[in-house]
Automatic annotation (TrEMBL):
PANTHER family: UNCHARACTERIZED PROTEIN YECE (PTHR30348), UPF0759 PROTEIN YECE (PTHR30348:SF9). InterPro entries: DUF72, UPF0759_sf. Pfam families: DUF72. This is DUF72 domain-containing protein.
Length: 283
């Protein structure tokens, strides 16, 4: 029984001196993050495919139970829209190979304009992917959430490929007007996504966006605590990523989410204690 939790990144300036030592060389930051959380979103790969050497360093900084959900490059998903993308896709798959089993899923995030009429393109794309990876798809076109036939069509394609549907829950964030600069920025940039809590595979993945106010974030994830506990009881292995507009408390919030689920599922093992951000002293 395993629940993976994590954040949208493994380093942030505001975490230095709090969740990890400061100063800390960049090549050691993932190791310290991995003592707080056991999963991370691989968002940087959306903008540029890293070298194999860089990815190998990620594997070296994390234990065998750590998990990456790595996003396909925008060249594949947004610019070529899954068509004629063989070359950049092969380069990406080669680059992430050093992660081995740490690659929990390869994440196909599709643009908001990718709608129900494009599902056959997605089906062809998924059929051609190598079977040695798991895949997860995030859609943002409103019809997939408002139209039952569109949702059913997408679910059928994903199920046939053994792929998961990643929900990005922004309902708690958009429930109240923004109150900080970070929230106002996110208000303009983040998608207003309807709630979806249905899992298609044994490895559901959730992206949850809360508020800069910790109490609001915790209030908004209550349904996910219940849903995640239910998945664990069904024998699934969920992964939950906790976001806030400023992400200042994200590692601690991810651990808190894990603890709240553990209250409902006592058989879930606790996360290990994190590496101290400062040296331990006698006094």
């Amino acid at each position: 029984m395993r629940l993976h939790v994590g954040c949208a990144m493994w380093t942030l300036r505001s975490w230095q001196g709090r969740f990890m030592p400061h100063p800390l060389p960049p090549h050691e930051r993932l190791r310290h993050y991995a003592s707080w959380c056991d999963a991370v979103e691989g968002n940087t790969t959306f903008y540029a495919t890293p070298t194999r050497e860089t990815v190998a360093s990620w594997a070296q900084q994390t234990g065998p139970d750590f998990r990456f959900v790595v996003k396909l490059p925008k060249t594949v998903t947004h610019e070529r829209r899954l068509a004629d993308a063989g070359e950049p896709l092969r380069a990406f798959l080669d680059a992430v190979e050093p992660l081995g089993p740490r690659a929990h899923a390869l994440w196909v995030q599709l643009p908001g304009s990718f709608g129900p009429g494009d599902v056959p393109v997605l089906a062809r794309f998924l059929r051609r992917l190598p079977a040695d990876h798991r895949y997860a798809v995030e859609v943002r076109h409103p019809d997939f959430f408002a139209e039952p036939r569109a949702a059913a069509q997408l679910e059928e394609v994903l199920t046939a490929a053994g792929a998961e549907w990643i929900p990005f829950d922004t309902t708690a964030f958009f429930a109240r007007p923004p109150t900080s600069d970070a929230e106002r920025d996110a208000w303009m940039k983040k998608p207003r996504m309807p709630l979806r809590t249905r899992a298609l595979t044994t490895r559901p993945i959730v992206r949850y966006l809360g508020r800069d106010d910790t109490a609001r974030t915790v209030e908004g994830w209550r349904r996910w605590v219940e849903v995640t506990a239910g998945w664990l009881r069904e024998g699934r292995t969920p992964t939950v990523f906790v976001h806030t507009p400023d992400n200042a408390e994200a590692p601690a919030l991810a651990r808190r989410f894990h603890e709240e689920v553990r209250v409902l599922v006592p058989g879930l093992a606790p996360l290990p204690d994190p590496i101290p951000a400062a040296p331990l002293t006698l006094f």
